[in-house]
């Protein structure tokens, strides 16, 4: 949950605490709606599930990878894991992109033209929802029409440049949300210290390793990457290491002042996103195949928190809609179906119908898949900058309980 602009998921948990405060007051300010506090998931099993879903599974995979490589050998283990994760994408990676469309375009007319959003949020919505896909779509179609691998290459490089921003911003936002759900909030300067570490991590992840300009293939398209040297790699590495100091100082000062920290789960969500899935994503030959799925699982978990709370509200008065389980299940099935359409059904049909011999010779056998793949990825990054902002009224559902749902249940 991409990862995602100067304001992203964290905007759903903004507050301006100055000293320890009662939980209700802290969380009311944190989410920005109502006066009831959010509480962490109840029950040991639920807390363990939350920990694993938002990033805690990652460190457990490294010893498992070692055992697999020793038991099967690197080649067989890499084949088995790669094969598994290829098919796991149907249930994790693809739905994580698709559910963004379900969240974003809900009530699109009211959001773009009506009064569902304020002016600033409406402008962001129109830009992310209509301008960005139009530009990226035109870019991809121009690359196909001109049979230009370099033009496609620039599109892919924009995608790979922005994906690091998406990953670290999602980790930051998930940390802020989970911390707020525990009654821990951050001053603006504290958030910026943490964000600085995220952005420096993004820069170093992109610049490392140095690249003299390499011929690569992506979705059948062969292109040459833009070179960047050792100087940029070393400079971004130094900035990343330097950013650890204010991060540690901020967390230490917060502990000394308030005697509270976001503890294990929120911090793991941040560090897994920045360190394990972005900077050192290739440190293990097997876990690297799993990083996109782990990122997607983190995103889907937060979507589940949001949609579950909304569904619980809507099943009570005055709506009396379908049960929460059915409503969340319908969202999950819709995301699975749309994910198949976006990454399998639609691109296969487009390539079969429109990709002629000359186009295939210049751009590989799947040029429309390549264009749609880049479009969905980049569009996903920008849609997240709108969905998870505090200005989106639906972010109130990131609280586990809220006044309307409680009142509805009490009235039944």
Q: Would you mind describing this structure in some detail?
A:
With 412 residues, this protein is an all-alpha fold. It has one domain (9-16, 29-411). Helix content is 71%, strand content 2%. The chain has a two-stranded antiparallel ribbon. A hairpin with a 2-residue loop joins strand 1 (215-218) and strand 2. Helix 4 (93-104) packs across helix 12, helix 7 (149-181) packs parallel to helix 14 (367-387) and helix 11 (287-314) crosses helix 12. The longest helix is centred in the middle third of the chain and has 33 residues, at 149-181. The protein is globular and about 65 Å long.
Quick summary:
This protein has helices at residues 23-31, 44-72, 74-88, 93-104, 108-112, 119-145, 149-181, 188-207, 230-258, 264-279, 287-314, 324-354, 357-363, 367-387, 403-411; strands at residues 215-218, 221-224. It has 412 residues and is an all-alpha fold.
Please give the share of residues in helix.
Answer: over 70%
Number of helices: 15
Q: Radius of gyration, Cα only, in angstroms?
A: 22 Å
**Element string (H = helix, E = strand):** HHHHHHHHEEHHHHHHH
- End-to-end separation in angstroms reads 35 Å
Secondary structural class? mainly alpha
Q: Overall 3D geometry?
A: globular
Unreliable stretches, pLDDT < 50, 5 or more residues? 1-8, 10-39, 401-412
The total number of structural domains is: 1
How are the strands of the biggest sheet laid out side by side? Answer: 1-2
Reported for the largest beta sheet, the result is: 2 strands, antiparallel
């Amino acid at each position: 949950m991409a990862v995602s602009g100067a304001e992203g998921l964290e905007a759903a948990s903004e507050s301006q605490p100055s000293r320890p405060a009662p939980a209700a007051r802290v969380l009311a300010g944190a989410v920005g709606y109502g006066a009831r506090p959010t509480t962490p998931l109840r029950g040991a099993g639920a807390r363990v599930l939350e920990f694993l879903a938002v990033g805690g599974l990652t460190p457990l995979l490294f010893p498992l990878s070692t055992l697999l490589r020793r038991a099967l050998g690197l080649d067989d283990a890499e084949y088995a894991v790669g094969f598994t994760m290829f098919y796991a994408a149907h249930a994790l990676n693809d739905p994580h992109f698709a559910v963004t469309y379900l969240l974003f375009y809900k009530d699109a007319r009211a959001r773009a033209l009506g009064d569902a959003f304020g002016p600033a949020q409406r402008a962001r919505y129109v830009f992310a929802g209509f301008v960005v896909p139009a530009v990226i779509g035109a870019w991809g179609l121009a690359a196909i029409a001109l049979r230009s691998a370099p033009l496609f290459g620039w599109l892919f490089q924009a995608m790979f440049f922005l994906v690091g921003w998406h990953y670290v911003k999602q980790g930051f936002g998930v940390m802020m949300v989970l911390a707020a759900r525990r009654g821990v909030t951050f001053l603006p300067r504290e958030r910026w210290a943490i964000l600085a570490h995220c952005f420096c991590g993004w820069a170093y992840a992109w610049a490392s390793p140095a690249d003299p300009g390499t011929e690569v293939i992506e979705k059948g398209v062969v292109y040459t990457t833009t070179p960047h040297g050792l100087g940029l790699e070393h400079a971004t590495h130094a900035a990343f290491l330097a950013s650890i100091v204010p991060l540690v100082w901020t967390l230490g000062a917060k502990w000394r002042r308030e005697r509270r920290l976001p503890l294990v789960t929120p911090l793991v969500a941040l560090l897994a996103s920045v360190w394990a899935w972005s900077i050192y994503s290739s440190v293990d030959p097997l876990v690297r195949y799993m990083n996109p799925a782990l990122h997607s699982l983190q995103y889907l978990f937060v979507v589940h928190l949001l949609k579950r709370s909304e569904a619980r509200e809507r099943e009570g008065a005055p709506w009396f809609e379908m049960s929460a389980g059915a409503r969340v299940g319908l969202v999950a099935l819709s995301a699975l179906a749309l994910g198949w359409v976006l990454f399998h059904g639609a691109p296969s049909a487009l390539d079969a119908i429109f990709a002629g011999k000359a186009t295939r010779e210049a751009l590989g056998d799947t040029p429309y898949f390549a264009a749609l793949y880049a479009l969905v990825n980049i569009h996903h990054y920008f849609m997240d900058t709108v969905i998870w902002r505090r200005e989106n009224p639906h972010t109130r559902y990131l609280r586990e309980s809220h006044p309307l749902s409680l009142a509805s249940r009490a009235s039944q």
